[in-house]
Design brief:
two-stranded antiparallel ribbon, single chain, alpha+beta, 7-stranded antiparallel β-sheet
């Protein structure tokens, strides 16, 4: 079973603002998000209409927005989980025929700006101790991004110094457990009302 890319961002959007955010996504005004999607569109021609939709199945009190090319956002009360089918190992190594990591991080930075998040946590979606922060998304836990970061520090140690540093190669195996925190400028603020 492979691990996929996930990122976690803080937010304070109300339910109606999440739907407004989906409308912003559907306008194509988020440049870095659209550039990321465009990179994958040749591999997902069925998504040519570039439409974002609400997933009507609300798992654990969350709202999910499903977008083109396997991109999705799951909103709990305090955290937005960004998910994509890009493999965690691919994100770490950035070893495709095109640069995947830069457009992905640019999109996360843009989303952080829109959602008012000061940092993003990158972690695998499964199979690692770090992926346990996903449990804080669901309504029985429903914690914020600071709680996730503190849990990681207490249970997994400090974040990696770089994304590449998470990947470790040994004689008989590789290790890809770890997480990275992308910290953004202090001037990040919610842009929903400005778009």
């Amino acid at each position: 079973m492979g691990r996929d890319f996930t990122s976690y961002l803080g937010h304070s959007l109300q339910e109606n603002e999440i739907f407004e955010f989906m409308n912003v996504l559907n306008t194509g005004e988020l440049k870095a998000t659209n550039e990321f999607i465009q990179q994958f569109l040749p591999y997902n021609p069925e998504d040519k209409d570039l439409t974002w939709k609400v997933d009507t199945f609300r798992l654990g009190g969350t709202i999910s927005l499903d977008g083109p090319c396997g991109l999705g956002f799951t909103f709990s009360e305090h955290v937005c989980m960004v998910r994509h089918y890009t493999r965690w190992l691919t994100f770490l190594l950035n070893d495709l025929e095109f640069d995947i990591r830069t457009p992905l991080r640019n999109m996360i930075r843009e989303l952080a700006w829109c959602l008012g998040s000061r940092f993003a946590i990158y972690a695998p979606d499964s199979g690692a101790r770090e992926s346990g922060i996903m449990d804080f998304m669901w309504e029985d836990e429903n914690e914020d991004i600071e709680c996730m970061r503190n849990w990681l520090l207490q249970n997994c140690g400090p974040p990696a110094g770089s994304i590449q540093a998470i990947y470790k190669e040994f004689e008989d195996h590789i290790q890809t457990d770890g997480y990275y925190i992308d910290v953004f400028d202090d001037d990040i603020h919610s842009a929903i009302g400005e778009l």
